[in-house]
Specification:
Oligomer: single chain
Structural class: alpha/beta
Distance between the termini: 34 Å
Strand order of the largest sheet: 3-2-1-4-5-6-7-8
Number of strands: 8
């Protein structure tokens, strides 16, 4: 199987990096609007750089372009896709665009996988939700195996994709803000910047593993850290006073509303 990537930006490049590990770099073709970008990444990963048409000839065609650019890209590829007689699967990473809409843009009832990865796929710690339309079970399993080095995969109903993308797709940006803020607090308390950042990042990594591996509710795990009359509960009190949880919830909902809006455009 060959895996073609049209678009090698932050997300497309991160997914391509994972697929090179899962399927082998020799099976991956990279294309990008700025050819030098695809060539540089291909040189790093040991795969092939080519044009959009060559990438569109692969068994899996990953569409790593922005939602607002998708119609134009697929309009250009439509004749090439229509001329194909061999089976292939389109793989979309665009937020807000349904599989039926992607088919309309591509001009055919093609098998489609819609996936929502996040940038940690680049280090094998991503969260990828996906759904599919018209994809044979064996092809879907082949895709899953190629994507396995990217991180966790979870199949969801398409109606949940937008919400899922706003938790795990947008979430890293807010997690980085939290790590930065924690490090700022450490620096304010007297820690060197590099150490404060390391401690904050490792703490978040370990806390996430506790949630995933223990199966315990985050509130229960939080309570276990808060000793009566201790330091931690005072910090929790301040965050509650500043509406920390409400602000995070509102951030997810704001991202969701924007995602839905992009899907209508």
């Amino acid at each position: 199987m060959r895996y073609g990537f049209i678009g090698c930006g932050n997300m497309g490049g991160a997914v391509a990096r994972a697929v090179c590990r899962g399927a082998g770099a020799g099976q991956v073709v990279l294309a990008n609007r700025t050819a030098a970008k695809a060539e540089a990444l291909a040189g790093e990963l040991g795969c092939t750089a080519a044009g959009n048409e060559e990438a569109a000839d692969c068994d899996f065609v990953f569409l790593g372009v922005k939602p607002q650019m998708m119609a134009g890209v697929l309009a250009e590829l439509a004749p090439r896709l229509a001329a194909r007689t061999d089976p292939f699967v389109l793989v979309s990473m665009a937020a807000g665009l349904s599989m039926q809409r992607l088919r309309q843009m591509a001009g055919g009832e093609y098998p489609i996988i819609r996936m929502m990865p996040n940038t940690p796929v680049a280090v094998g710690a991503g969260m990828i939700q996906y759904c599919s339309l018209g994809v044979p079970a064996d092809r879907l399993e082949t895709w899953r195996q190629a994507m396995a080095p990217a991180g966790r995969l979870d199949e969801v109903a398409e109606g949940q994709m937008d919400a899922a993308s706003c938790v795990s797709g947008c979430g890293p940006a807010w997690a980085y803000q939290f790590i930065e803020a924690l490090a700022d607090g450490g620096v304010a308390a007297g820690l060197p910047r590099a150490k404060a950042q390391e401690y904050a990042a490792q703490m978040l990594l370990g806390s996430a593993r506790m949630v995933l591996e223990s199966g315990r509710h985050p509130g229960e795990l939080k309570d276990a850290v808060c000793s009566p009359g201790g330091s931690t509960i005072q910090g929790v009190r301040v965050l509650e006073e500043r509406a920390f949880r409400g602000a995070v919830t509102d951030a997810v909902l704001a991202a969701y509303e924007k995602t839905v809006e992009m899907g209508k455009g």
